[in-house]
């Protein structure tokens, strides 16, 4: 019995030690924003429901968002965006999964410029992409700040824009994600 208790204690210590050194950071409150600059109309859509994970041990980067949480400030435009273009009943999520080109050091002293290679999926279409980002460990050693800005073309993801709406909705959307990941 004493031997069994010793084994249990050793297992608990090993598990806690592994957790202490784990390099996994998560968020459920990251921010996602898209900027549409069409000839006659410019608007921004935002959400503070970006979910993300960085696992340095596995070199895994995974972010996703429920597209129904995006808001542009005009409810009728939001409804048309979801129903007519993003088709969120059929394709509710956008997701990026990838790996760091070079695994970052997460230095507190400076921001690190990184490249993440992976697959971006939206509207049921997956495309290989290369995403630039900046990351930095915060003063709290259990947190990492991140930000990324990249362009997506709606036609690359089979999101069609009627010619009538062409002047109101841009073919290229500038996407920005940011937030704090916690260990």
TrEMBL record:
Signal peptide extent = 1-22
Please state every residue range assigned to the domain named Lipid/polyisoprenoid-binding YceI-like.
24-182
User: InterPro entries given for it?
Assistant: Lipid/polyisoprenoid-bd_YceI, TTHA0802/YceI-like_sf
Q: Which domain of life is it from?
A: Bacteria
Asked whether the keyword Signal is assigned, the reply is yes
The coiled-coil regions, if any, are none
Tell me the Pfam families matching this sequence. YceI (PF04264)
Keywords on record: Signal
User: What SMART domains does the database record attribute to this sequence?
Assistant: YceI
Designated name of the protein: YceI family protein
